[in-house]
Amino acid sequence: MASTPSSSLRHYPHQINAQFGYKKIPCDTCHLSKSTRLSFMLSSSKANKMFDLVHSDVWGPIIESFDGYKYFVSFVDDFSHVTWIYLLKSKSEVVHVFQNFHMLVMT
């Protein structure tokens, strides 16, 4: 019998519990999905002009592209919400990319 996408993603805690003798088994996914608090406190920092505050994040590794890129770093200006994305072949490139980005925004 073919399963539909929704049925393959369904969670069956009663089947899991039956496998272990109907004992109550804590489920991290269920616990987190019922969470109503944000994982981080809201920030009161707001930029008054461009490049006063820039958020950055490094992602990866991801499936390697045809050109060998496996990571990317993003920079988001808090004031304008303009976003820059740089593709990286290794995490060690982050420092060099950040220095280039810093030089770009300071000119």
Helix count from the secondary structure assignment: 4
CATH topology of the domain at 54-106: the name is Nucleotidyltransferase, domain 5
User: What is the C-alpha radius of gyration, as a whole number of Å?
Assistant: 22 Å
> Whole-Å distance between the termini?
62 Å
Runs in which pLDDT lies below 50 for 5 or more consecutive residues are 1-10
Q: Could you estimate the helical fraction of the residues in percent? A: 25-40%
Order of helices and strands: HHHEEEH
Q: Please state the structural category.
A: alpha+beta
Word description of this protein:
This protein has 107 residues and is an alpha+beta fold. It has a domain at 54-106: Nucleotidyltransferase, domain 5 (2-Layer Sandwich), CATH 3.30.420. The protein has 4 helices and 3 strands, in the order H-H-H-E-E-E-H. It has a 3-stranded antiparallel beta sheet, with no helix packed on it. A hairpin with a 5-residue loop joins strand 2 and strand 3. Mean pLDDT is 77; it is low at 1-10.
Defining traits:
107 residues; alpha+beta; Nucleotidyltransferase, domain 5; three-stranded antiparallel sheet; 4 helices; 3 strands
Which helices and strands occur, and which strands form pairs?
Elements: H1 5-8, H2 13-19, H3 28-33, E1 54-59, E2 71-77, E3 83-88, H4 94-106
Antiparallel strand pairs: 1-2, 2-3
